[in-house]
Write a structure and sequence with these properties.
single chain, mainly beta, three-stranded antiparallel β-sheet, 0% helix, 17% strand
């Protein structure tokens, strides 16, 4: 996963998983609230989205490194457009 933090401490997560290219875009993104006091976060995978590159060849979007792959398929969230 590639994780970036906003000024308000919210996190944006970019990730690859086992559904990429078959059911979903090559990578997707999600966001979380700021980490809890103990450093934990809750990721709501139902809210992950496709980035603009999914819909057109004329956009650029941050991509996680090829090895930044979740060890499980994320079957929730936005799917690959038809």
């Amino acid at each position: 996963m590639l994780v970036t933090a906003g000024a308000d401490r919210t996190l944006t997560i970019f990730f690859h998983d086992g559904t990429n290219d078959a059911e979903t875009a090559p990578w997707r993104a999600g966001s979380t609230k700021a980490p809890a006091a103990d450093g934990s976060v809750v990721v709501e995978f139902n809210r992950v989205v496709n980035l603009p590159f999914t819909f057109t060849d004329h956009s650029t979007c941050p991509a996680p490194a090829a090895g930044a792959r979740l060890p499980f398929p994320v079957t929730a969230g936005e799917r690959r457009p038809r």
